[in-house]
Amino acid sequence: MCPNLIEGVKSQRKACNSMAKGHRPVEGIRIKRRMTVKDIVDQMQGTAFQARSLGNAAKVWSNMVSDDSTTIFLGLAGAMIPAGMRTLMCTILQHKMVDVVVSTGANLYHDIHESLGGSHWQGDAFADDRALEKKMIDRIYDVFASEESFEETDRIIAQASAKMGAMRLTTRQYIHRLGISLLPRFAREGMVGTAAKAGVPIFCPAIADSSLGISLLLARKRHGGCPQLDLVADIDEITQMVQNSQNTGVVYIGGGTPKNYIQQTQVITKLLGKNKGGHKYAVQVTTDSPQWGGLSGCTLEESISWGKVSPRARMATVHADATIALPLLVAAVVSSSSDALRKRRRRSFPYLEP
Predict the structure, then answer these.
(1) Looking at residue 18, what is its pLDDT?
(2) Could you tell me how far CA 200 lies from the centroid of its own chain?
(3) How many C-beta atoms lie closer than 10 Å to residue 63's C-beta?
C-alpha cells in the first residue's frame, strides 16, 4: 500500500475516533433462552433506528413512573381498541402507568362495545366492501365488525345517557358516570370500566366525532334528553390538573385531538399566569411524519418552541405501528419498574367536581 494511502486511512480513523468520543458502539441483540420482553427491549437501546427509539421510550416511561412528583397523561388516538388493545389499556390503568386519559370517542365506544360482550373480528383488508355493506359488516382495515351489534351498543349507551337527564357535565364526568352505570352490564374488563372503578379521569374532547356522539343524539331524539356537555369546563378541568401537579409527563399513542388537547394545557397555564415550563417527560408512538405540517406528525422537539414540552425534558419518539410498539413498551415498563409501580400512589383530584 502506498504511503499516501496509508496516511489517508490513518487520518480517517483518527477523525472517526474523535467523532465517536462520548458515543457508544452499536451492539447486536443477543438472543438467549428464556429471554423476557424486558431483556430484548433493554438490548434495543444499544441498536439503531426504531429499535433504539423503542428502547429509549421504555426507559423514559420507566423514569416517569418512578418519579412520584409527576402526573402522567395518556393521549390515545387511532383504532387501538378494535385492533386488540383493550386488555392492554386495562393493564396500563391497573398498574398506574398513567393518571389521566384523553381519548378519541371511537376508542371509548369500541371499548364499551367489547365490554358489553361485543367483538371485533379478524377480517381481510382486501375484502369486497360492497359485499360487506350488504351483509352489514363494517371494516377497519383488516378488522370486521357487525353493524347490527353496533346498533345495539348505540341503544344501550343512549338509554344510559338519557337516564342522566339534561344536567351539565364535562366529558370527564360523563364518561365516568357512563362507566359506573354500565358496570353491571359489562361482561368483560375494559378501559372505561376499569377507569370508572379506579377513579382514573378520561376526557373525550372530540366526543361528537364518534359513535358516542351518535348515541347522545339518539338519547336526545328518542329518549327525551341527554347531558349537556360543557367543553370549556373540560379544558378548565384538565388545565387545573396540570396547574396542581408538580411535574407532568405525557405518553402519546398516535396524534389527533388527544395529543394537542394535552399539549395545549401548558400554553393555557402560562396564559393564566402559572407557567409550568412544559412537560418534563414525553413519549410518542406515531406513524405520522412532520414534513406535512400536521400536529399528529409534529415532533416533540417542535413542541419545545411552544412551551408545551420542557427544553430539558426526557423524551423519545418511536416511529412505528402502535399495535407493535405499545405491547412491547408496556411489558418492558411493567417488568423493569414493578417496584416503582407498586409504590406509586393513585392520583386524586379533589378540587374537581365528582
Answers:
(1) 58
(2) 14
(3) 18
From the list 38, 96, 308, 343, the catalytic residue is: 308
What amino acid occupies position 158?
A
| Residue 8 within a domain | no
Phi, psi at 327, each rounded to 5°: -60, -40
Please name the residue that has the C-alpha cell 402502535. Answer: 322
DSSP state of 85: I
The reply to whether 6 falls in a domain is no
Cβ contacts of 232 within 8 Å, gap of 6 or more: none
- Report the alpha-carbon distance of residue 224 to residue 231 in Å, rounded: 22
pLDDT tens digits, 278-290: 999 999 999 999 9
d(CA 150, CA 119): 10
Considering its fold, how many domains does the chain have in total? 1
Range 108-117 average pLDDT: 98
Distance CA(133)–CA(304), nearest Å, equals 46
Phi and psi, residue 8, nearest 5°: -65, -40
Give the residue from 20, 72, 133 showing the smallest Cα distance to 314: 72
Crossing angle of helices 171-182/147-162, nearest 10°? 110
Q: What pTM did the predictor assign? A: 0.93
Average pLDDT, the chain: 94
Active site residue 221: no
Cell numbers that stand for 156 in this block:
344501550
Q: Identify whether the C-beta of residue 285 lies closer than 8 Å to the C-beta of residue 330.
A: no
**pLDDT digit string (tens) for 174-219?**
999 999 999 999 999 999 999 999 999 999 999 999 999 999 999 9
What range does the domain containing 78 cover? 30-343
Domain CATH code at residue 233: 3.40.910.10
Q: Is the CB of residue 116 less than 8 Å from the CB of residue 185? A: yes
Return the beta strands (E) in the chain as ranges.
70-76, 100-103, 121-122, 137-140, 143-146, 168-169, 202-203, 228-229, 247-253, 279-286, 309-319
Dist CA 321 CA 35 (whole Å): 23
